[in-house]
Amino acid sequence: MTASLAHAVPTIPLLINGEFVESRTTHWRDVVNPATQQVLARVPMATPDEVAAAIASAQAAFKTWKKTPIGARARVFLKYQQLIRENMKSLAATLTAEQGKTLADAEGDVFRGLEVVEHAANIGSLQMGERAHNVAGGVDTYTLLQPLGVCAGITPFNFPAMIPLWMFPMAIATGNTFVLKPSEQDPMVTMELVRLALQAGIPAGVLNVVHGGEDVVNALCDHPDIKAVSFVGSTKVGTHVYHRASASGKRVQCMMGAKNHAIVLPDAHKEQTLNALAGASFGAAGQRCMAVSVAILVGEARGWVPELVAKARTLKVGAGDAAGTDVGPVISCAARERVEGLIERGIAEGARLELDGRKPALDGVLREGNFVGPTIFSGVKPGMSIYEQEIFGPVLCIAEAETMDEAIAMINANPNGNGTAIFTQSGAAARKFEEEIDVGQVGINVPIPVPVPLFSFTGSRASKLGDLGPYGKQVIMFYTQTKTITARWFDDDVSTGVNTTISLK
C-alpha cells in the first residue's frame, strides 16, 4: 500500500478502558469490500502491550461491575436493544460493504444478534439461584450464580454482528467484563455495535476490543486473568483455541465447522422444499456454519434435481447493496480460489456438475469481486473432497438414498454435528428422524434450525468443543460459577453439643 493510500482510508481503533485508541503497531491489514476490492479501512494487529492493557482494564473494571445491581445491568441492555433497532439500516449497510452479504441478509445478521441482547435484558430472571429451606434441622441450602471475571470472545468473519452479540452481552449481563477480538477481515460493523454499547451505558473497562491474528488469539488463550474464552470459527482454529485455553485452566466453548445434511423425502411439499434448499445452500454465498451443504434425496425425490437446478438459476449474483441480489461475493480472493479449487476436485473425482457458478458474468467493477454463483453437484458420495470438506461457498452437493434409514446412516457417519433437517409431511418420519439422528440441532421442514435465544445453540460432535453452548440457559452456566451455601442460625440459648459425624442434625 502506498503512503498516500494509507492516509486516504480510516483506521480501526482499539477499545481500552472506555477509550477508542489508535494502535501503535507497525502491522496493519486492509479491510476490503469483497464485491469491488475497494479498501474500506485498515485494521491493526495489536501489540502484546495493547492486549495486556485491555485485559488489565477489564480486570480492574470487574471489581466494581460484579457488584452492580442486576437491575442496573439489565437496563443497560434495554437501552442497547433500542439503539440497535434505531441504527439497523446503517449497521446493515456497513456489514454489507465489508462482508458482502445482501442488505436483507445483513439486517437478519443484526436482528439475530439483537434477539440475544433482548435476552440479556432479562438477566434478572435468568441468573437466579435455587434455595431449599430446612434441608436438615434448621439448615437451609442455596446457590448463587456469580460471575467469573474477565472473559474473552473470538469471532468469525461470516456473522460480524450476530456472533459478537452472542458473546459480550450475555457475559457482561451476568457480571463479567469482556475482551473481544473481532474478525480482522470485517471489524467495522462490530466496532459500530461496540460504540452503541458504550452509548447504552456499559462502563469504561467492562468491554474492551483488540484486533489481530494468531498472536492475539494466543495471548487471550494464555493470559492468567482471563477465565473463559468463547470462540466461533473454523475447526482448525477452534481446536487450537480449545486445547491452548484449556491448558491454561480456562473454561472454553468452541463452535466450529460443519457439514450439514438435509434429507428430502418424496412426500415433502416440493415447491417449499426446493425454495428452502436454494435459500439455505446459497444464501450468504454459502458462508454459514449452518448452511445446507448436502441434500440427500430419498426414493422418488431423486428426480427433483432438474427443478432444483432451475430454481438455483433464477438467483441473481451481484453486490450485496444492489436491488434484487440474492447471492453476494465470498469474503476474499483466497476464499474464492479455494471454492473454485474444490469445484475442480469435485469434477475430477466423478461428481456430476449440474450447475457451474464459477466466473459469473458481471459488469464493471464487479468483475474484480470475489464472486461464485450457485453451484450444484449430483452423484456425490462420501469420500469425495466436496463431501468431506466444508466448502464454505455457494456449492450444494446432492447425494441419493433408497430409504430414509440409509440417509440417516449417512448423516450419522459424518463426524460433524452442527445442524441437519428433514423435509416431509409425515409426522412419523419426522419423529423417527429426530430420535435417531446424532446431530445437535434438528430442523423439521426448517432448513437452518438455529434456535432463538430462549434455547441454546447446541451443535455437537466434531462441530463443538466444550460442554456448554452460546446464549440461552447454557451460556448462563458458562459465564457464572455456582456457589452453594449451607447455613444454620442458632438461637442464643440453644446448644447442640459436639457432632463428630458428617450428618447435619
TrEMBL record:
The keyword Transferase is assigned to this record: no
Pfam families: Aldedh (PF00171)
Enzyme Commission code(s) on record: 1.2.1.27
Superkingdom of source: Bacteria
Keywords linked to the UniProt accession: NAD, Oxidoreductase
Gene3D superfamilies reported for this sequence: Aldehyde Dehydrogenase, Chain A, domain 1, Aldehyde Dehydrogenase, Chain A, domain 2
Annotated Aldehyde dehydrogenase domain residues: 20-485
PROSITE patterns, alphabetized: ALDEHYDE_DEHYDR_CYS
GO molecular function: oxidoreductase activity
NCBIfam families for the chain: MMSDH (TIGR01722)
Family to which the UniProt record says this protein belongs: Belongs to the aldehyde dehydrogenase family.
PANTHER family named among the record's database cross-references: MALONATE-SEMIALDEHYDE DEHYDROGENASE, METHYLMALONATE-SEMIALDEHYDE DEHYDROGENASE [ACYLATING], MITOCHONDRIAL
Name of the protein this chain belongs to: methylmalonate-semialdehyde dehydrogenase (CoA acylating)
Source species: Pelomonas margarita
Organism taxonomic ancestry: Bacteria, Pseudomonadati, Pseudomonadota, Betaproteobacteria, Burkholderiales
